[in-house]
C-alpha cells in the first residue's frame, strides 16, 4: 500500500515539475508584437455596397 502512495506522490511531483518547466520555457519565447493601430473590421453596407468600419 505504501508503494502505491509513493508512486502517486512521485507522479504528482513529476507532473508539477513538468508544468512549471513548460511555463518557464513559454515565458522565454518571444510573443508576437501586436500592431499599435487597431485593425478595423469592415462590413459591407447593404444599401450602398461600400465597406465601412464597425
Please give a structural write-up.
With 54 residues, the protein is mainly alpha-helical. It has a domain at 1-30. The chain is built from 1 helix and 2 strands. It has one helix spanning 2-28, and strands spanning 42-44, 51-53. It has a two-stranded antiparallel sheet with strand order 1-2. The radius of gyration is 26 Å and the shape is elongated. It starts with a helix and ends with a strand. The mean pLDDT is 83.
Order of helices and strands: HEE
Query: How much beta, percentage-wise?
Result: 5-15%
Task: Output mean pLDDT.
Answer: 83
Note poorly predicted spans.
none
* Total DSSP helices: 1
Anisotropy-based shape: elongated
Note the main attributes of this structure.
elongated, mainly alpha, 54 residues, 2 strands, single chain, two-stranded antiparallel ribbon, 50% helix
Element layout with pairings:
Layout: H1 2-28, E1 42-44, E2 51-53
Antiparallel strand pairs: 1-2
Amino acid at each position: 500500500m505504501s508503494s502505491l502512495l509513493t508512486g502517486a506522490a512521485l507522479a504528482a511531483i513529476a507532473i508539477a515539475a513538468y508544468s512549471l518547466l513548460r511555463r518557464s520555457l513559454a515565458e522565454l519565447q518571444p510573443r508576437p508584437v501586436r500592431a499599435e493601430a487597431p485593425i478595423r473590421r469592415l462590413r459591407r453596407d447593404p444599401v450602398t455596397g461600400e465597406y465601412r468600419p464597425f
